[in-house]
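2 proteins. here.
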Amino acid sequence: MSDPMKMKQSGDWIGYTYRVLDAFPFVQGVLYYSAVESGDWGADRGELQPTRFILAVGKPEKDARMLSRDDAAFFPVEEAFVDEGVLYWVFRPLSGNLLAHRLVQSGSLPIGEVRRLLSAVFSHARRLAPKGEYAVVDPLNILETTEGNIRFLYGGASGGLPGLEIPDVEKHWVFGIACLAFRLLTGQSPPEGAAIPPLRRYRGDIPAVWDGAIRQALASDPAARPSLAQLEAGLLKASGEAGGVPQEHGPAFAKPAKGNFPSPAVPGTAAGKDAERRSPSVTPFPAGADRIPGPGGVRRGAAPVPGAEKAAGTGLVPEGRKSPYPVSGEPPPSGSSDSRPFWKSKGLLAALVACIVVLAGLGGYHWLFADKDPADAKSSAVFDPDVEEDPEQAAEWYRQSVEAKKNKQIAQATLMGRKAVSADPGKREYYVHLAELYQMMGDYQSAILLLQEGVKRFPDDAELHDLLALYAYHVKDLKTAESASDRSVQLEPDNPTYLYHRGKIFIARKDLRTAAELIGEAVKRDSDNAVYHHDLAVILFRLGEIDRSIEHAEKAVQLNDSNEKYRMTLGLAHLKKRELLEKDSSLSAKEKKEKQRALAKKAYESFQAATKLNDRYSQAYYYEAMSRFYYGDLEKAKQAVERAIVLDSDRASYHYQLAVILTAQGKKSEAIKALEKAVKLEPGNDRYKKALAKLKSN
């Protein structure tokens, strides 16, 4: 029998909704970076495909999906569910910088900055500990938000999570905070299985009272440790120098499918309005230098880190300090709950440090998100100033980079690629190769800077201009994107890819007519491209050209009948055409009714096909219910909308649609309950309130 907590690989699915892009061993379980593959989304409003970080917590002992957590202390979880016996938390779009990243860069921190961080941790601990709630106090589990606050990712009520028991929550906090203080001050983790040496041996400016308080809190015997209040008084009353301000870096963005911009959603629909589409802002640490992910970058065939599962039960956890948070779904060891988990071993930490050093040299801080204007970056970020021009050496570095890329050692490949282009900036293929590596790492800013230098040296290279347009588009630098795309189309006016990309830029500019013309030209030159047909169908839908929209949506489905979004677009176009028939005065009432019924049938067939392709696609069930209602099949319409509600019970429109169907079936009391639920979910919706009042008065 397979282990349900075994790390999933790139391309695997979680709950039929989330497609794994990358995976990372975490303080508890496995953290996955995943694409959200249900619902409509698109770039027509300058938005990217939604992605989420998902934590595989472990095997739930009870049916509880998610315990109540303090959002002031923990980063919010927007969804929790059990799939194949594993509890998953889906985090809201992450917004901030992992403290671990800053520490690996800087080592230790100034005394004043340590005081600030510890003060924030104590504030959370004082509030949570009396309620029996805890957090893993480790830099890898601490998110520094843009507002200057801190949030924990993993944690909650003591004893309420899979395989985790903490006999003394307060002493757990004390030990964790002391470990964090030791790390912040010295740049190292406390020695395992040995006496704690004086901290002042590491640096002379550590106050003596801090030294004593931290060493006492790290005592192997929990009874010998101070209380939380005593530790806070000992650490925060000591004087120290002012702390520094965290440095901000460029944003991270989701990787597009190679050569294509993301597909748009059908606008003007509930699906298009309600879907969450923010791109990720934080990427966690990989498990080694050869596992650098690009946010959204699918690494096909990626495998779990060798030995990661085995390490959880080895000597990496010192004697007498058993780990309170198992990492591979195994039952927790008995005894004390005070230790470091496997990912804090010296070997793995060294790999993390090496990985970050490589990235720091590249300017590739792809898990940070602070906004930064690309124009502010200097050209010195493109070339390595320490590399002299040497074409022969450049060719060797390029060979090494290509080999490292084949072995999925992306950080090493990028480092060698940058050296190659620095040693021989006249080689056009070096720019394309390095830009793709930056894309794989999610570092679009570096790719833009590189390609801006490349198009200066190769002004007539259409591909370089198109690549520049692609990456600039994804960081919403539309001015750069439009200029570069215009040049690529000038150079190769018959290239459908360049026409399509230019059309996407005009969608972002909200010039749908020009976008339709450009993507229409792309369709003429590549009529077998389902993406082109589908995106043109969406644009035509928004322009009100419904017959043409149906034509291209049908063609997209014909070319790719396994894409539920294409089915969704086709169904919505049929519904829209049915609606427009109401205004057709040339038809008799009978003809109009027959045509509308036929269109409703085509619509529900499209939506039903979408649900067969993705049985967790709640919006497809919702629109199937609507179409079946128009067709007159009330019982199946009711079944479809009830399925939509099971999948997403917080959509007021679903409950309203159920009420409409129940009313038509003569089930007034049930319809009232459904409408009351809709009003409760959207109390400001006058349509729902008026419908409820009218139904109650009849």
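next one coming up
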Amino acid sequence: MRRKAVVAKDVLLWAVLCLPLLWGALTSFLADGYTWWEVGAGAAVIGVAVTLGRSRPLPAMLVTAALWLLAVVIGKATAFFPVMAAMSYLAGVRTVRVRPAVSALGATAAAAVVAVPLLRWDAGSWFVAVAGIVLFEVVPWLAGRARHQHLELVRAGWERAEHLEREQRILTEQVRLRERARIAGDMHDLLGHELSLVALRIGGLEVAPGLDERYREAAGEARSAVTAASDRLREIVEVLRDDSDPEPDRRDVAELVGRARAAGMRVELHGGEDDVRLPPMAERALRRVVQEGLTNAAKHAPGVPVVIRFGRSAGETVVTVSNGAPPAAPAGDHGPEPARPPAGGYGLAGLTERVRLCGGSLHTVRQDGGFELTATLPHTPGPARQAPLPSSSAVHLREARRRVRRTRVTAIAVALIAGAGATATVLGFMTYDAVTSVLSPADFGRLRVGQPEPAAGAVLPARTRIDGPAVGEPPVPAGAGCRYYGTRPDPFDALSRELYRLCFADGRLVSKDFLPADRVP
């Protein structure tokens, strides 16, 4: 399927590049009339270049450049500008090494400068050859090379982003597992304590006086089962526990705020006095949220007031810990700027996991340089919410996509501007060449055969239209040298091929002829 798509693209490219050639055959596009055998030969050469374009981009570029230079020599190069530009651009995109490409560009430029004048000495043709190589081969190749480098950078960047994403996933998963181990310890502390109380009460029942023997035996079995369950829970938690982790902080919110104030922090507490009972796991998560918010503020915004707000409702408790932007460094102090809490930090990742397993949610907001941490905890334990995937690189990925789109648009704009500039340059030269080589009919009528050359030269234009000989002209008088002048200043007029021929010999005008536009070779 991929092979078919590649072939289809190449066929479409070949058809598009052949359109100017076909148009020139049907409409005499820009006065370059192509015969059908020229159309067939040109289409075949373009097909060879397109076929070589993917596996041998530099030879494909050289083939189209040679075709275009040959067309310049015969005076029919207009339809081959797009071909050379397209294949040069693709060569820049597809070529890895620069030195061979530079050698190929230098070879075509040398051919334009040296070989074209040897085959056809015409100042206009030489200018078109050199300008065409620069504008339609060198410039497109440079644009393609820039595109190639950008694609390589983007490819390397995506590989790096994928590597960082994998590392982020691994680290986040490690934090989650560590937090699960801490939660397992909390479960042991809570559930183990309750099981111990149950075992104690059953033991009291077992030794109660007056209890029937069979009930005493059942109570003993129940006590043994609860004790075994407690021991099994302790064994499981010991397996899960990470000995490197410190013991969990058991201080309540008021004590955490008091210790922070004693350390010099400015902390405001709003709503924490409400006597609302949360599930034990949610209560511990709430304390961890407050502790994490105070720790972040002390680390990243020292001296900035911290505000803790509690919001209570019938079904949930919302706690918010916020602080403003860190103070700016004084003038002349070039020390390190206080850093804000990094997105996806490991403390926040573990805290997010703890709150999620309680059925709640945790959100962070950074605004105007400050930081806000908000946790929502349900009063009734529910199913844990789906864990979010790490998104630390999502913003960078979107930015990379925007840069790719921006570069693509820029490349298209540069290509259009370069094409417009090249077209304007060529058309401007053609217009200049036509306007400065026109001999008016009145001046042509005043010239007389036998007139001295200096007298005739007084009315002649500074430039000749072509260097000659002209196609389909009558025989040149023996020993004479001829000059060719245009009859119209518009190079795109259908009659712009009309010429006045003046032949001089021995310092005198020996022949004057009008060469019509429809002359046959």
